[in-house]
Design goal:
- By secondary structure, the chain is α+β, with helices and mostly antiparallel strands.
- Strands 1, 2, 3, 4, 5 and 6 form a six-stranded antiparallel beta sheet that branches.
- Helix 7 packs parallel to helix 9 and helix 8 runs antiparallel to helix 9.
């Protein structure tokens, strides 16, 4: 008598989480940027010699590199752990050095402005105006002259209409605005002008709905900041929904990609169009670091498609984080950027695993729902320590 046959049901096994070298390098540069910022303040406050710390780290790296190279010559192959240690130490050194240099530059700009006195300024508004305890204020980047590139905050007197994001303004000293002049030249200026017009047109939707619409679509949070709606979203832990981030950029790029495919354009043209729209939308909405991170990942994915490289989400994330921290080392202290990186890293590393667990809990039913639920749980779990430590909720 033969035994009954059993039908084997294939089960999708999630891939094992792994980190490419660029991710380890990005983590190391991030840590170095944090350490460098702390050391920069100690240098100014306590007069500690920064070269002593940098010299210690350099000596440690040289010793590690010597040990790894010597083992390579003896055994004929590289020591994986030693190689990772060298890469990690290099990243920490680079991040620390860039962060200290950023602190030195900031300190030099502060001294320049302290000695500037009352004078005429010309600059570009680099963010939407904000209302504060002492009145409205805007961020300004000086253009031309000995203070070219210096960033400052300009507080406006009562009754003065704050200039829009992207405007070229002229002012006396720091507090007195003389005039808001033309937009910047080129594509960015055209985007800023179009954004200002779009904000004006959306103003016909009054109240909290209009403020929410302008904040979600265009990144204009002036009417939303401090409102009851903003507080409700913050209490619910959904502040990222009303701030332009990678998810908004993904929706925009997805719509553009779907429309471009309907026109049957060549693949390279479609990729170029998606990247161009991603860059334009990121610039237009205020260059939020979370959106910049997503934009760099889109560009890296498009380049990979063009050259035939296998897609690697974690590698693209590490590359985007590395690029942003190298250009702006103190971006590591931006809460929105940190939350974005943590959420995306959690989804890339554990998203499939969480979706499989949730699917098993529901008996393999409701596949789309369980996938979304698993992604939500992973994002909440990876960002919870930072959210609790920062906002206390």
């Amino acid at each position: 008598m033969s035994a009954p046959a059993h039908t084997l049901v294939p089960v999708h096994a999630p891939t094992r989480a792994s980190l490419p070298p660029v991710v380890w390098l990005a983590i190391a540069v991030w840590m170095g940027a944090v350490l460098g910022e702390g050391w920069a303040w100690q240098v100014w406050a306590e007069g500690t010699a920064p070269w002593l710390v940098v010299g210690c780290w350099s000596a440690l790296w040289l010793v590690t590199a010597f040990v790894v190279t010597r083992r390579r010559l003896r055994t004929g192959h590289w020591d994986a752990v030693g190689a990772i240690a060298v890469v990690f130490l290099v990243g920490v050194l680079v991040g620390c050095g860039l962060s200290v240099m950023r602190g030195v530059s900031w300190r030099a700009q502060t001294r320049l402005l302290a000695d500037a006195g009352a004078r005429e300024w010309t600059g570009v508004v680099t963010a939407d105006p904000r209302d504060g305890r002492f009145g409205p204020s805007v961020r300004l980047r000086i253009v031309g002259g000995p203070y070219d590139g210096v960033a400052l905050t300009m507080r406006l007197p009562a009754g003065v209409t704050p200039p829009e994001y992207g405007r070229v303004v002229r002012c006396s000293a720091i507090a007195k605005l003389r005039e808001a002049d033309e937009w910047e030249k080129g594509v960015s200026g055209a985007l800023f002008a179009w954004r200002a017009e779009a904000v004006t047109r959306l103003a016909v939707v009054s109240g909290d709905p209009g403020a929410l619409l302008r904040g979600v679509v265009l990144g204009d949070r002036r009417a939303l900041t401090g409102s009851a709606v903003d507080e409700d979203f913050r209490v619910l832990g959904l502040s990222h929904v009303v701030a332009v981030s990678g998810s908004h950029l993904a929706v925009v790029c997805g719509v553009v990609l779907a429309l471009a495919r309907r026109t049957r354009l060549p693949r390279l043209s479609v990729l170029a169009l998606v990247v161009s729209v991603a860059i334009g939308y990121t610039v237009m909405t205020g260059l939020a670091l979370s959106a910049v991170r997503s934009c760099v990942m889109v560009a890296a994915g498009a380049v990979g498609e063009c050259v035939g490289v296998r897609r690697d989400g974690t590698g693209a994330l590490g590359l985007s984080v590395l690029g942003i921290v190298v250009v702006s080392p103190w971006a590591v202290f931006d809460i929105g950027f940190a939350l974005s990186v943590l959420a995306v890293a959690g989804l890339l590393l554990y998203g499939d695993l969480a979706a499989t667990w949730v699917s098993c809990a529901f008996g393999g039913r409701f596949e789309k729902t369980t996938t979304l639920l698993g992604a939500t749980l992973v994002a909440q779990a990876t960002t919870m320590p930072l959210v609790v430590g920062t906002f206390g909720m």
